[in-house]
Design a protein that fits this description.
209 residues; alpha/beta; 10 helices; globular; phosphoprotein; CheY-like_superfamily; Tscrpt_reg_LuxR_C
Length: 209
């Protein structure tokens, strides 16, 4: 399932959820798993340790996962953050993503969905469980018109969503990396997105991917 040794943390104040997720994932020997029942305890841990990916509950007994997510991405931007929650409200999902999250999973997702989402997020994609994806696509965001994309922009957007880097996309499309970077900036402007994660999220919302 995973090719390299990965440090994965689970932050959830429900012991049964913690143990269930740990049991699901610990069969993979390439994963080193750490569990926390408090967000602050995890922040203390990550200050002195590398964490590749964290499964973060939205409602914790010592604070909001939304705020913890923002803190994690601000201070450790390379750490992949996936929300794992019973909160299925569209506004909460989007707020979590706007705070820098790399994905969102509902706790009723089956085991394979969770594993697939972890792998997708580690590969640079924005990962959603099936039900979350349906919630996101259920109604467009009224404040944003669907951007009109050129054929080349669609190609680049698809490549970005698949986790390809600028040099890789340039090689695939036989253009210079500088050209790809120009297209990236144009796409961000068209979608009024702050970063590539938000860009992919909006494109997914409008079924452009």
């Amino acid at each position: 399932m995973f090719s390299d040794k990965i440090k994965l943390a689970i932050v959830d104040d429900h012991p049964m959820i913690l143990e269930g997720l740990k049991s699901l994932l610990q069969s993979d020997t390439t994963l080193e798993i750490f569990t926390f029942t408090k967000g602050e305890a995890f922040l203390d841990f990550i200050r002195g340790n590398t964490v590749n990916i964290v499964l973060l509950d939205i409602v914790l007994n010592d604070g909001s996962g939304l705020n913890f997510c923002k803190t994690i991405k601000k201070n450790w931007p390379k750490t992949v953050v996936i929300g794992i929650s019973n909160q299925a409200e569209r506004s909460i999902i989007f707020q979590f993503l706007q705070n820098g999250a790399n994905g969102y999973i509902l706790k009723n997702a089956d085991a394979q969905e969770i594993i697939d989402c972890i792998q997708e997020a580690l590969n640079g994609k924005v990962a959603f469980s099936n039900e979350v994806q349906q919630i996101i696509l259920s109604q467009p965001h009224d404040a944003l018109e669907i951007p009109k994309l050129t054929k080349r922009e669609k190609q680049i957007l698809t490549a970005i969503s698949s986790g390809y880097t600028t040099p890789q996309i340039a090689e695939m499309l036989f253009v210079s990396p500088m050209t790809i970077e120009t297209h990236r900036r144009n796409l961000l402007q068209k979608f009024k997105a702050k970063n590539m994660i938000e860009l992919v999220r909006i494109a997914t919302e409008y079924k452009l991917l």
